[in-house]
Structures are given as C-alpha cells and as structure tokens.
Amino acid sequence: MAIIELLQSSPLLFILVTVILGLLIGSFLNVVIYRLPVMMEREWLAQCAELNGKKIPENDELTLSTPRSRCPKCNHAITAIENVPVISYLLLGGKCKECKTKISIRYPLIEALTGLLSGIVAWHFGFDWACLGALLLTWSLIALTFIDVDHQLLPDSITLPLVWLGITFNLFTTYTGLYSSVVGAMAGYLSLWLVFHGFKLVTGKEGMGYGDFKLLAALGAWLGWALLPSIVLLSSLVGAVVGISLIILRKHQRDIPIPFGPYLAAAGWIALLWGNEINTAYLAWIGS
Fold it and tell me: Rounded to two decimals, what is the model's pTM?
C-alpha cells in the first residue's frame, strides 16, 4: 500500500518506474516478435501433416519462455546480466560475449521504444486503470507492428484478445462507452472487410489481409466508433507517403506488398492519447 501511495503522490516517480517496466517488457517483446511467428508456422506444418496423414515434424520445444535465448551463431546461452535492456547491448559493444558476432541494433531499439512509449502513456494518463489498459494496448501494438513488418502477419493470438480486452475496459467507460466500443469493433472490422472485397472485385487482387480487419476492430473496441475515421485516414496518409517514398527511392518494388498493420498501429496509438483532440480540431477546421 505504501508503494501505491508513493506512486500516486509522485507523478515523476510513477513515470520513471513505468519507463523501467517498459524497458523490461520491450526485452520480452523481442522474444514474442521472433518466436511467435515460428511457433505459428510449426503449428501450421503439424496441422497440414496431420491432415495429409503424414508424420508430424519433430522440432525442439519452442515457447515464449523456453528455451533460453541463445546466440544464433555459437549457441551461447544469454545470461541474465547479458539481457539487461539497452545497457547490456552497450556494455557488450553490440556483440556476442563469446563469438563476437554482431547483435542486431533492433533489439535495444525496440526496448528503448517500448520504454519511451510507456513513459508517455504514464505521463498522459497518470496513476489510473486507464493507464494500465493503455500500456497493455501499447505493448501489443509494438509486437504486432514488428511481426507484420517481418512476416506480413498479425497473429489472432494478439488481435482477438485485444478486441475483448477493449470491450472489457469499456464496461466501465474507461475510454468510451460500451455501446460505442461494441459498435466500434463491428464497424472497424466491417469497414476494412468491405474495402478488401471492393478492391478485389475491381482489381482481382487482395489489397490487405484479414489481420488488418481484426486490428481495426480491436482499435474500435478500445476507442469507440467515432475515432475510426481519424485512425483510417491517418494510417492511410502515412502509409501512402511511406510507400510512395520507398518506390521513388527505389528501395521497394511496386509489386511487393507493404504491410498496413504498422500504420494502423501507429494511428491507433496516437488516437489513444490525442484522438478526441484530433477529432475536435478536424471538425472545427471543416466547419470554418
């Protein structure tokens, strides 16, 4: 109780503690981002083998907790002291302790990003249940973003629980009313579903994946239907700018799809913190 009272009475301390927690969570998210798609692929291969009456492929056990993280080159087991977010990377000089193979800079960047965004959430919401929910959503969006960048995949094991978690928080009108939350989930899914099938009907191609529908449904469940237009508009604008820039700079071929999930996630996070202000400013602008 004394710790809770201290965090309530000291916003700066609460933000600092949340940043440290975010750094630790960021380290775990690196594991999720790498292992979850591999676990899903193994499950799919096992299911396919079972349906075809073939022997299920044998693999070493892989979960989010086992085995311990290891260097992919020399198989050196990463110790706890070597796994301190950001700091360990700096102390090791960005290299494996044993074989000196370079460690991807992305690991500490994801940790730092998670810590930074967690601190912003703590600053914005303060010591409140809304802050807890916003942190859970933030961490989920970070994981989804990088999984989608790597594999063009938004796992149901993250997106679908987010839908129900958003509705659960809004049972208590945490971010919006329950009616707005449920309608937001429905409208979020159906809006992109209609765009998908309309685009496919006209072009014969699939413009996005079903994971995008579920992610927008989750954002609608958290933030309500009124913020969906802002989320879609913002994500589309950012996605268009980035996509055109990559094509112009010739770093991306026209026929290679660009994942839409990261732009939805970024727009959803911005709407989580400043969505109402954005809506108010936009309505004032079109009404002027």
Answer: 0.93
